[in-house]
Amino acid sequence: MSPQILWIGLGNMGRGMVKNLVEKGSLDKPVLLYNRTRKRSEDLAATLAPQGKTEIVDTIEEGVKRADIIFTILSNDAAVRAVFESALAKKDVGDGLKNKLFVECSTIHPDTTEQLAQDVAAAGAQFVASPVFGAPPVADAGQLIFVPAGPKAAIERLRPYIKGVMGKAEIPFEDQPYGQALKLKLIGNTFVLNMVSVLGEGLTLAEKSGVGAAPVKQFLDGLFGGPYSAYGDRMLGGAYYKMAEPLFSADNARKDIGHAAALARAAGMELKNAAVVDEYLKVVADHAGGDRGDVAGIYGAVRKNAGLKYENDA
């Protein structure tokens, strides 16, 4: 008999993860869904076949009371703390938290994660910090890389839903501090954000210098490929300002780069590139809105700073 799973958070990462969990997770019970905006749960449930593979719950407390494993993936530290405050409210869920497993997949500060783990342990439940690497299309394809940290026994309860279900691999921190997973996630995201910044500058310089963006894109495809090509497509194709919902919002990117910079300061060093990235993201947020502007809009920010239009009219 499979465990009862509750999923909290149906942003553009959570939706793809749930789709794969429902389709490949070998579950004999519907996945319980909770999202602050109920319509998002309804819209997702309507796309998943066959019907009956999901069930919407109206409150976090109701879902936690019924669940054995609770997944959370939310936009920022404040949202995560609010969810866990409700989830661990014993006056609402009774004393039935023992042996429940909370799997926290959001990108938050390591200190936030450590505090959540303490709160969960105090309530008698298990906790795994497991941020993931991969953009929303990667989540849709079930090809995420999970970074689980915590007791090995708790991570083993998560593993049936990683490889071949929601992910393709893991980078585990078994029996290590929960914050280790978040440190790696933040470091990894600096690679992504620095790459996007370099791409935006390079493509804009190519246009301003007369080389043209097309030869630069050929160079990217031939030498780097992968995310370089994907972000180059989002920039040159105009998706960075045309998409209805950002794949990685400016607000979330600024949160991540801020956490990474704080992590570096605590370690006695400075991430100089972080300040450059954040300045570009401020332009994206001012132009498109922090929750609507995509990180690929850094290209538009570079263009704007260089005297060109933010939009490339692709």
UniProtKB/TrEMBL annotation:
Record domain 6-phosphogluconate dehydrogenase NADP-binding: where: 5-163
GO terms of molecular function: NAD binding; NADP binding; oxidoreductase activity
Entry keyword annotation includes Cytoplasm: no
Organism superkingdom: Eukaryota
InterPro entries membership: 6-PGluconate_DH-like_C_sf, 6PGD_dom2, 6PGDH_NADP-bd, HIBADH-like_NADP-bd, HIBADH-related, HIBADH-related_NP60_sf, NAD(P)-bd_dom_sf
Keyword NAD: yes
Alphabetized UniProt keyword annotations: NAD, Oxidoreductase
Domain 3-hydroxyisobutyrate dehydrogenase-like NAD-binding: 179-296
Active site residues per record: K185
Segments forming a coiled coil: none
PANTHER family xrefs: 6-PHOSPHOGLUCONATE DEHYDROGENASE FAMILY PROTEIN (AFU_ORTHOLOGUE AFUA_2G11600), OXIDOREDUCTASE GLYR1-RELATED
Family recorded in the similarity comment: Belongs to the HIBADH-related family. NP60 subfamily.
Record's protein name: 6-phosphogluconate dehydrogenase
